[in-house]
Amino acid sequence: MLKTIPEKNKIKPIQATLLDYEHPSRILWKGLHASARSFAIAATVEQGVHWVLCSDKEKAAGCANDLYHLMDEGAIFFFPMSENKGVRTRIHDASQKVQRTAALGAIQEFQQGKSAFPYLVLVAFPESMQEWVPDAQQMAQHCLSIKKGDALGFENLKSWLVSAGFNRCDFVSQPGEFAVRGGLVDLFSYGDDQACRVEFFGDEVESIKVIDVNSQRSVEELERVEVYPNLFQTEEESSLVAPLALTPERCTVWTERELLLNDVPGMDAFQGNVVCFST
Question: What per-residue string of b and e applies to 13-26 under the rule 16 or more CB within 10 Å gives b?
Fold first, then answer.
């Protein structure tokens, strides 16, 4: 049953309703169009995990772009399919894998209490929610966390990258590649849109830096990095789950139309809040 929220109502009562996960609500928010809905989400979200479900990829990308400018950019993630699927062919697009992997990694970090933000917003569309993903256990097994000062071992890192399916090359330029020079390992994780350089002193990680793949120069120093391989290669079906299953049971789903929820695996057992916009 949808609880109607008139246009004139203030934001705070809605915030209070969404934070009351002991009594999940289905809310109909009337009178908002296009980007006004993004402003409403930005003004309302304070904490927790939020899925924003748009009707198609283009609308989802536009909504994510709005939210990048209205909220903490590091807490907003576009959640596309891992690849573009045509009628006769399947076009591989590494950028989509990176965006999807980054979102899945952010869910893991948020669940583990490692996020720098009190909230996480994932912007998706029905097709991207219908593509199943590795479960939390598989995600953890696939991820290599590297921190400054770790006694990781230079040879151990190289071995892990090879076993995880990374390709060794002279200079990294795209996700799934790594290069070795002296005590340096350059790698391009599927969880980031930039490559990084791990510098060793013996077997200890001395520094981690973001690098520009064009100039191959370091541009920013990091304290840690999470390295993900390509998660969307063939997996056993038993280790795959619907994306909604990776997030807390009591999160919030925002949607522009209630009917879209019928296309999301796992919504039949969903125990969180739902906010549906209506004109």
Answer: ebeebbeebeebbe
Distance between CA atoms of residues 14 and 228, nearest Å:
37
| Residue 63 clears pLDDT 50, i.e. is over it | yes
- The residue assigned the tokens 């199943």 is 132
Q: Report the C-alpha gap between 167 and 220 in whole angstroms.
A: 24
Q: Residue 42 and residue 147: Cα distance in Å, rounded?
A: 32
Q: Are 131 and 82 in contact (CB under 8 A)?
A: yes
Q: What are the structure tokens assigned to 276, written together?
A: 């549906």
Task: Choose among 107, 93, 6, 89: nearest CA to 57.
Answer: 93
- In three-state form (DSSP H/G/I as H, E/B as E, the rest C), the secondary structure along 184-220 is EEEECCCCCCCEEEEEEECCEEEEEEEECCCCCCEEE
The token pair that represents 201 in the structure block: 């002193």
Q: Can you tell me the distance from the alpha carbon of 109 to that of 223, in angstroms, rounded to the nearest whole number?
A: 15
Burial of residue 253 (number of CB atoms within 10 Å: 0-12, 13-18, 19+): buried
Helix (H, G, I), strand (E, B) or coil at 93: coil
Q: Could you tell me which residues are beta bridge partners of residue 123?
A: 52, 78
Q: pLDDT, tens digit, for every residue of 87-135?
A: 444 445 689 999 999 999 999 999 999 899 999 999 999 999 999 999 9
- CA angle 210-74-247, nearest 5°? 115
SS3 content of the chain, % helix, strand, coil (to 5): 35, 30, 40
CB 14 within 8 A of CB 46: no
Cα separation, 35 vs 45, whole angstroms: 16
